[in-house]
Each structure stands twice: as structure tokens, then as C-alpha cells.
């Protein structure tokens, strides 16, 4: 069993991140009966064809007797598009490898449908790569009905996000800042507190190294009861901005769900991050720790409802790598 | 050229750490003329023989025409012991590999003396391993006249060293705590602020997993103008304790130098660490970052004299590894 076509499907699906919500960014590769490449595709924006259909279109008659590699179990329900399991049957595919079973009770059953029609199906090829990678946010959304929230912050080793006078440009390395712009371009929404808008006046756009806007921009969400100053960069029109007049994470996430957001980045400040942490609504921490000391100034996380050490929120390190001169830590909650 | 004997000399020297100050913990290995093992040794406590002499004693006549591997350039000065370069000449060694040249102007010249007598000398074998490892603190001391200070702390990812009510047991993993006890046993002194004694009542001893005292105990140094409570664990007699009635890092380090301390661990609290950081008297950061969030409570580093972002103290990450469930970051200052 050759994992390479699935690797290709995963790489393809990465290119669709941020364009498919609330649908999953899926990748598909079709090999012909002799095992030669026949076609590939990714999920199109909502209302457009799914990955399997795109790959089958390219493969044409070569799909007959061939093998499909799909990052997610093919769907069987009629939504805005016809079910993909049926499209694979119609094309005469003889085997289907899929990485992750569909957690959605309405869509699930694709494998059963295919098996019943005599197609060989294999679940779990590179499953972890897909679950931790391109489908992570969507799988969380499918399971919980809530967007997946990554809390990203950049601090010094001693936990400061700005100096005593509020200045913070720049604590993290150029590589880390460029990476965050790349991540923003794959997301549905960026959430910040109004305090961050007042303090830093961030644009919250995804920009290239030369400052130009990347093709895709996430929704900008400012949380807080007070007004956003008229001249604030988040109101510059370069991307859509929503103002949520509540600090309640539940209300913020409900609004985001209503707008089809699946993959959300929480960028600050300490008060808002504390509220999300207290509500257990952070699904991943992405920390850029600069090897630097400040000794004073605001910290990354404000009150999270923890009074004593036994109430400490425990997480597990998922990965530690360097990002330029910074230490990049990714962590997930321990339940 | 075979690095293995030098690797063995380095491993030997590690065993002498914490027993030789203010002398360097050196390791030596002697091979005979055919390249077979002949003898090995480490620096004995002050007043005792140096590593080369210990290795030559074991090698006996086998040293004739042999090769010596030493982590530090052999000394030429008469201190409390005769010079090692002369001992190597007397034994008839024909070649000497040493990792690091002696930075001490009084002791230096060993290689020159050996070369003048017809012994082949080679500098720099595994030099970086020795400079970053067993001789790190001593080389710093030889260059600056001050002890090498490692600031060690354990914090949550959001930079807290205790919860809002002051409780802190335990933020770091059992593996990290065991490692710190092992490190303490190789050091000359541990320094804490009086506030830490009042808040946590630490014993500051090096203990095994079962709580028993390890054979070697560093000097315990409590910094602060007020009294140490009579029942404090640092006064339990299990190791020597000194009370320095000053927060000035210069005064603390001068006292330590006067007591022959070369390798010092600064363990807190925030105020004392801030004073050392402000005075640029921290030579290494050793941070154990637990994947946990508190959102309130004291932070690792207090005021370090930084008012704005351009004054931020910049460091460089030297290594990032896991320690149990924690992220262990080692960093050195950027000058």
C-alpha cells in the first residue's frame, strides 16, 4: 500500500484551507487501473463541487477500475452538491482509501455505500496527519458544533507581550511574524479584544513580506462593549470587520458559527484570552516565545478564573520547533 | 584522529563538577604507544592532584611514547600542585590533545612548553563540547573573575511561577524537578531571595527521588535585608547557608567569588532575578516551561530596568528539548 497518493491529497487539501468553510477542505487523488496518476482535486468554495468530483473530472474514463485516495470519507448525502460516494461508483472506481471517517451523522455512510456496491474501501491511511493537519479545525467543528479556536501569542521568555510603556514592536522574529501572516490567510476569522485595537491598532490582515495584502483575508472580529475608533486600521476596508459587543466567548463563537467560520485565530489581548481560557474555549495554543526578557509590562494571559494551583489548566505539548530565533510551542488541552 | 578518548575525558570531567572549584573540573585519558588504554583521571578537590597526574599515575610506564587527551591545556604554573605539563614530559608522553586552551595568563603556556620539549600538541579536539559543557562555568570565571550564573525557573506557558494564592506545587513535571536536584549537586552555590524563603520555605538541597540528600550539597545563599525565620528549612543544617544582607548582584557575586564559587544557580524570586537581569549578571537562562495556564499569580521576572521595547534584553536559544511534559529552554545573552 503506497501512501504517496494520500500525501499528495493532503498537500492539495492544504491549498484549500480557508476557502471551504463550513465545508471541510478535502483533497483527492485518482490513480488508473495500472496505478498511474489520473486526476486530482480539492473541495471548491461552498456550493461548488467536492474534491472527489474535481478529481474524477480530470481523470475521466481513466477512473474506471482505478483507485481513489481521499482525505475524508466520501459523503452520501445530497447537500448543495450530489453525494461523492455515488460519483465514485458512477465512474467505476474499484478501490477507495480514505484517511478519516466522516464524523457527521448526516454525511457518514460513504464507505458502507461503496462496499455494498463492491468497491474495496480502506480507512485510516495517514489518518493522524489529516486529523492534526488540514481537517483539524473542521473535525472539531463537526464534533462540537463550535469553531476551532487557536490562541496565538508572541511573548518574551518571561511571558510579557509588551514593554511597560505598551510598546511591542517587535518581540517576535521576522520569521514568526511572516508565518503568522501565512496562517491568517488560511483561516476564517481573527478575533481580538477592543483593548488590543486601542493599544496596537493592528490591521489584522494577512500580508506578504512587502506589506501587500494576500489574496484571501479572514473576517476580522473585534470583541468589546465600547466603540471602535473611527480611524482604526481594522475599519480600513481591506477585509470585512465585525464588532461583537460582548466579552462572552459563547456569544462570540455563536456569531462565528452563524457566519460559517470553522477555523478561528484568537490573537489577544490578555483579558479576552483569559475569558476564552476560563470558558475552556481554546482548542490549541500556538506560542511564539522570543528569547528575550522584559521584567515588566503586560502578560499574555489575564484572569482565567484560576485561584490556586490545583485549578491550573493543564495542556500537553504537541510540538516544539524553532521559528527564526523564537521557540514555537503548540499545545492542546488535557481533558 | 580518534575523538573517543576525548569523549571519555569529557564524561570523566562531568563527574568532577562541583568538587573542584575554584579549579576547573578537568578530565584526562592516556593511551600507550600502541594506542591502547593506559590510564584516566579527573581533577581532585582543591589541593589534590590535577587530572593529568591522576591519569599518569594509573598509566605508569605505559605512558612512555603514549598520547594524552585532556579537556584543558595542561598548566605550567606551580600552584598548590606541580605543573601538569612537566608531569607529562617526565612520563615521556609523545603527543597531547587538548580541547580548550587555558585562558588563564598565569597557567597558560602548557602547549608551548610541551612543543619546546618535542611533544606534538593538538588544540581544539571537541572544543565546543567542553566549552559548553563541563568547563563552561570555569571558563567564564577565568575570563571575568565572576562566577557563572544560571538563572533557573519553572513557569507556566503564560509566565506564572505560582497561582494567585501563592501555591506553586507543582508547576513543573517530576522529571524536571528531578533534573534540577541533579544539577544542584554539581554546583557551588544556590542563590534565592529572602522572599522565596518566606513564600515557599525551600530546603535548597540536592535530593534523590526518595527525598534523601545527595552526597554533595551546594552552598545555600539567601539574599535580602530582613531576617531569615528561625524555623526556615534553609537553616536545617543539611548544608551550609549564608545570608547576604544586600540585593546588589555585585555584592552577592563578590561574596561568592571570595568563597571560591564558580558555578552558581539563581533560583528566584522575581525581584532578585530582575536585579540580576538588570545588572547583566545572568549568563544562562534555564527555563522549564510547563504546558499549563494560570492567568494570574506572580511572574518569573520582576523589574529588570526595561522601560520600552528597544531596551528589551535579547538572548539566543542554545537548546530546546522536552523534560517530561515540560519544554526546557536554554539561552545565552546576546551582547
Topology record:
2 copies of one chain form a homodimer.
Chain A: H1 4-16, E1 27-31, E2 37-42, H2 51-59, E3 67-72, H3 84-91, E4 95-100, H4 110-116, E5 120-123, H5 127-132, H6 136-144, E6 148-156, H7 174-184, E7 189-193, H8 194-200, E8 219-223, E9 241-244, H9 249-258, E10 263-268, H10 270-278, E11 284-290, E12 292-293, E13 313-323, E14 326-333
Parallel strand pairs in A: 3-4, 4-5, 6-10, 6-11, 7-8, 7-10, 8-9
Antiparallel strand pairs in A: 1-2, 1-3, 11-14, 13-14
Helix pairs in contact in A: 2-3, 3-4
What is the strand content of chain A? 25-35%
Q: Looking at CATH, which topology of the largest domain in chain A would you report? A: Dihydrofolate Reductase, subunit A
- Total number of domains of chain A: 2
Q: How many strands appear in the DSSP assignment of chain A?
A: 14
Number of helical elements of chain A: 10
- Average pLDDT of chain A, to the nearest integer? 94
Q: Helix proportion of residues of chain A, in percent?
A: 25-40%
Extract low-pLDDT stretches of chain A.
none
Order of helices and strands of chain A: HEEHEHEHEHHEHEHEEHEHEEEE
User: Mind describing the biggest β-sheet of chain A?
Assistant: 8 strands, mixed
User: Any idea what the radius of gyration of chain A is?
Assistant: 22 Å
Task: Please state the structural category of chain A.
Answer: alpha/beta
Q: Based on Cα principal axes, name the global outline of chain A.
A: elongated
Across the major sheet of chain A, the strand order is 9-8-7-10-6-11-14-13
Which chains have the largest interface?
A: A-B, 54 and 54 residues
What separation lies between the terminal Cα atoms of chain A? 35 Å
The multimeric state of the shown protein is: homodimer
Q: Give the name of the CATH superfamily of the largest domain in chain A.
A: Dihydrofolate Reductase, subunit A
- The CATH architecture of the largest domain in chain A can be named as 3-Layer(aba) Sandwich
In the CATH scheme, the class of the largest domain in chain A would be: Alpha Beta
Amino acid at each position: 500500500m503506497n501512501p504517496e497518493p494520500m500525501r499528495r491529497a493532503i498537500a492539495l487539501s492544504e491549498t484549500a484551507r480557508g476557502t471551504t468553510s463550513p465545508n471541510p477542505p478535502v483533497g483527492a487523488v485518482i490513480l488508473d487501473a495500472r496505478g498511474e496518476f489520473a486526476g486530482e482535486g480539492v473541495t471548491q468554495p461552498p456550493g461548488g463541487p467536492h474534491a472527489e468530483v474535481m478529481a474524477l473530472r480530470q481523470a475521466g474514463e481513466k477512473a474506471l477500475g482505478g483507485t481513489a485516495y481521499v482525505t475524508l470519507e466520501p459523503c452520501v448525502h445530497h447537500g448543495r452538491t450530489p453525494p461523492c460516494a455515488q460519483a465514485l461508483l458512477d465512474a467505476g472506481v474499484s478501490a477507495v482509501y480514505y484517511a478519516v471517517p466522516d464524523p457527521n451523522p448526516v454525511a457518514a455512510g460513504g464507505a458502507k455505500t461503496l462496499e455494498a456496491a463492491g468497491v474495496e474501501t480502506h480507512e485510516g491511511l495517514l489518518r493522524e496527519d489529516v486529523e492534526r493537519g488540514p481537517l483539524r479545525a473542521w473535525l472539531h467543528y463537526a464534533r462540537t458544533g463550535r469553531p476551532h479556536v487557536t490562541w496565538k501569542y508572541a511573548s518574551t521568555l518571561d511571558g510579557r507581550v509588551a514593554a511597560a510603556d505598551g510598546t511591542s514592536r517587535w518581540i517576535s522574529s521576522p520569521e514568526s511574524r511572516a508565518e503568522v501572516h501565512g496562517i491568517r490567510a488560511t483561516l476564517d476569522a481573527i478575533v481580538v479584544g477592543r483593548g488590543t485595537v486601542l493599544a496596537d491598532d493592528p490591521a489584522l490582515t494577512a500580508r506578504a513580506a512587502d506589506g501587500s495584502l494576500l489574496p484571501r483575508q479572514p473576517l476580522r472580529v473585534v470583541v468589546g462593549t465600547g466603540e471602535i475608533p473611527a480611524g482604526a486600521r481594522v475599519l480600513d476596508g481591506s477585509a470585512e470587520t465585525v464588532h461583537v459587543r460582548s466579552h462572552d466567548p459563547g456569544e462570540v463563537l455563536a456569531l462565528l458559527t452563524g457566519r460559517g467560520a470553522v477555523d478561528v485565530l484568537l490573537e489577544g489581548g490578555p483579558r479576552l484570552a483569559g475569558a476564552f481560557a476560563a470558558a475552556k474555549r481554546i482548542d490549541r495554543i500556538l506560542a511564539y516565545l522570543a528569547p528575550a526578557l522584559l521584567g515588566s509590562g503586560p502578560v499574555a494571559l489575564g484572569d482565567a478564573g484560576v485561584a490556586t494551583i490545583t485549578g491550573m489548566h493543564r495542556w500537553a505539548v504537541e510540538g516544539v520547533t524553532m521559528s527564526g530565533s523564537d521557540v514555537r510551542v503548540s499545545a492542546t488541552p488535557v481533558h
